[in-house]
Amino acid sequence: MATSLFLLLGALSFIATIQGQDQSGFISIDCGLPENYSYVEKNTGINYISDANFIDSGVSKTVSPQDKATHQQYFTYLRSFPYGTRNCYRINNVTINTAYIIRTSFLYGNYDGLNKLPQFEVHVGTNLWDTLKFSDASVSIYRELSHSPTRDYVDICLVNIGTGTPFISAIELRILGKDNGPSSYSVARLKGLDLGSKNNSTCRYRDDIYGCIWEPYSVNGWRQLISTNIDPNPSQKMTYVPPASVMRTAATPRNARDSLDFSFQFDYVAQIHVRFYFAEVQKLSANESRSFNISVNGNYWEGPIVPTYNQTDFYIFYSTYFERISEYRFSLLPTEFSTLPPITNAIEIFLVKDFSQPQTQNDQADAMRNIKIAYKVSKNWQGDPCAPVAYKWDGLNCSSVGTLKITALNLSSSGLTGQIVSYISKLTDLESLDLSNNSLNGEIPDFLADLQSLKVLNLHNNNLTGQVPNALIQRSSEGVLSLRLGQNPNLLCESALCDQQTKDKSKKNNTVIYVLASISAILVLLLLVLAMINIIYIKKRKPKDYFKVHKEFSDQTGSQLESKRRRYSFNEVSNMTNNFERVIGRGGFGTVYYGIIDNIQVAVKMLSQSSVQGYQQFLAEVNILMRVHHRNLTSLIGYCNEETNIALIYEYMENGNLEEHLLEKNSRTRLFNWEERLTIAMDAAQGLEYLHNGCKPPIIHRDVKCTNILLNENFQAKMSDLGLSRSFPVDGGTHVTTVIAGTPGYLDPEYQVSNRLTEKSDVYSFGVVLLEIITGKPAIAKAVEGKIHISEWVKSMLAKGDVKCIVDTRLQGDFESSSVWRAVEIAMASVSNKSSKRPYMTDIVTELKECLAMELARKHNSCETMTMSLATESESSSLASSIMMFKTEMAGS
Ligand SMILES: *[C@@H]1O[C@H](CO)[C@@H](O)[C@H](O)[C@H]1NC(C)=O
Ligand SMILES: *[C@@H]1O[C@H](CO)[C@@H](O)[C@H](O)[C@H]1NC(C)=O
Ligand SMILES: *[C@@H]1O[C@H](CO)[C@@H](O)[C@H](O)[C@H]1NC(C)=O
Ligand SMILES: *[C@@H]1O[C@H](CO)[C@@H](O)[C@H](O)[C@H]1NC(C)=O
Ligand SMILES: *[C@@H]1O[C@H](CO)[C@@H](O)[C@H](O)[C@H]1NC(C)=O
Ligand SMILES: *[C@@H]1O[C@H](CO)[C@@H](O)[C@H](O)[C@H]1NC(C)=O
Ligand SMILES: *[C@@H]1O[C@H](CO)[C@@H](O)[C@H](O)[C@H]1NC(C)=O
Ligand SMILES: *[C@@H]1O[C@H](CO)[C@@H](O)[C@H](O)[C@H]1NC(C)=O
Ligand SMILES: *[C@@H]1O[C@H](CO)[C@@H](O)[C@H](O)[C@H]1NC(C)=O
Q: Where are the transmembrane segments (predicted)?
């Protein structure tokens, strides 16, 4: 009969008795403590400081005398936030990509005399951390989070959700060490269980340097094993160790053949990590043995595990995102040779928090903060400027996709004094800037004219002086900028603009609008006519009517492009390819030949003579290449369009396509290391990102695959073969296509069903490419039971927790695991069946940049990390070590 531990983890609260030792780099803030005050807490020796330098709102309060007497000192004061919806602490001075434990503590203590327990939210940056509910005014609660900041600050925000005034008692940050784990999510530590302990005290005074809480846990029917004389060493691969007092006790079932069962149930779908700690506490004699397997929800997970005497080992269970389950049942089952029952000394349960909410682009967020400080703005300007949308800063408008950018800033009638600050120049996406009705003085700075997107600039009714920059006047007279400068008595404004603006501004504005409107109307009409002509044209055209192709060509290219991208005769093409001597590739379009023009190597793509499809693709590609140019797209050098001979001439990509290098081994190919792989992935992603966001209308590539990623002599990657590409409308509409085009294995499953093409179809294909880059396996691999798609395979590996096996073994473990792990996450998100769950290319580029930064950081790092990964490599129990490699929470002290 198994005895089991059953925990309901839906809503947890703890009695906080937080202990620890002070260390440099640790930040301990007693919220509400008067400015400039600090003290050393008598039990822990930790130095607590006032929160005054970390926040500019809220009021300081104290708990009731009775609660003051029964709790630690940092609970005496608290900061309460009666005004504003979101109030944020800004913790400066944190280190990027370093794992921290962030602990927030709360004791209501009837500080407001209302005896009414509030309920509110805590956010970290733009992400919801938790909703706090109190059950007792005199019971403190805390939340612990393991988090790697992606910026050099952390915002901790208290959010009023209409159910009481938020408050906070203390904030503590503890450095865990260089981050070894994924940082696209953070984990909340729900519980630390000290099994087998009958000690009533949760207090781990100075034992646990991070001050983590270890709660004694014992269940009827379990036996307690204790060895008071051991001080379990961590095994080599461990960096965080629970305190010895926790490891000295263990729980075990009474009978040798019984299992030890735990189940954790949540009232929501939960992705969790569970760390099991083992240390043998008995000296076993020769005829005794203890070994056990662990199963999760009835399936084998890990084992056989044989705890070592006086040594701490651990295993981490990762549930994957894909499982979507809310109950976890763990069973420790004795193996058939075991003479002793299973044991566990300690368990930690972590809840994975999705911290992937978008935030304002870094430099723009910094600029906004500087503007706030410079003008002493006291609106709701706290935390991230643009996100979450509900708490966005007053007076701002932001773009809403991908990394958020500020498009409008309205500081009208805000009592601004001084000059127009240069931080505004960092808001490069600004379309509207309104600084009217303030007391700004000084000159109108030139940088305002450099804001390329600016359409509205209102400086009306200030005290500005000097000349108006010419560039602004010019843009205004061209009708691209609506400029208001009136009621600045000392402004020297020679053009009629100022007077006109002051006296007759409404009329002028109307004129501008009118002109703009008529221009757009004419443009729309023109486009419509063109589109109609085009439709008729294509419908009527016979495939071989090459004369018309040529005509269309000239129409579209215009003289400017004509001169840049040369047109060649068939004779010249024949010469440059030495009479079509060397074939370097074949595609749906036709054959590609090697050529030389003026000592420059080129690739000449000939349209196969019979190919009707080829003809249309040719047109598509010409259309696109004529208007796009990007370092990560193969560039067009020239073309030939002579009767039946149609060719496109590209820059020559010396190192062939990505697939050869990933899948083949020969003298031409090269085994890329992880940094190189990431660089290639990023190059390709940037090419696609440009097609999606840099082109108007956006372009869908439609055939993203490894063979279409070409590498030049420096192994710089470029997307090629835009032959299947189509532009798609910008108004959010999707494009219904009639022919399903693309390559099996890379085809968006949603598109296959719906025929609806969006940029997310490219994202899917790119996800597959990324998986190939990570695994070194083809999109569709042969498996024992027939063919298996790479995403299915990776999914199954993740489900088994078998993360190490995913990565191309030829890399021999030489990579930053957090970087790979993150890339896997991006790839898996990209291949989601539902397109709405896939990220945008912009997000992917951002993520890949961070992956690359992590990998580079490792390479330029101390030998500490190196030894660790070497040690890991030499481990024979690969699973345990792979888990170590992808561990997230407790890096070294
Ligand atoms: C805190 O210290 C700073 C610098 O010494 C001083 O300027 C400020 O007035 C002090 N604040 C209070 C409330 O004493
Ligand atoms: C950051 O930390 C350094 C050293 O610990 C300190 O001198 C500096 O004032 C801190 N800066 C801020 C903004 O807290
Ligand atoms: C632990 O607490 C329980 C009830 O709170 C009490 O009955 C028991 O005696 C305590 N045990 C020890 C060892 O203090
Ligand atoms: C109980 O906890 C105290 C305080 O941490 C510790 O000193 C003592 O060793 C613990 N006793 C046992 C049996 O674990
Ligand atoms: C356990 O290991 C520690 C070293 O980590 C050692 O000091 C201690 O004596 C060992 N205890 C026993 C009982 O072997
Ligand atoms: C193991 O050997 C000891 C003597 O060394 C003996 O007393 C004990 O019964 C044996 N246990 C088992 C399970 O065979
Ligand atoms: C424990 O796991 C090992 C290795 O997978 C397996 O061979 C053995 O049958 C398992 N034993 C039990 C009792 O599940
Ligand atoms: C900001 O967006 C809102 C809602 O879309 C719009 O009404 C407002 O005019 C915008 N403000 C500026 C300055 O563009
Ligand atoms: C405007 O600026 C001038 C100097 O540039 C100053 O003399 C004058 O007092 C200012 N007027 C107001 C209303 O601030």
A: 512-538
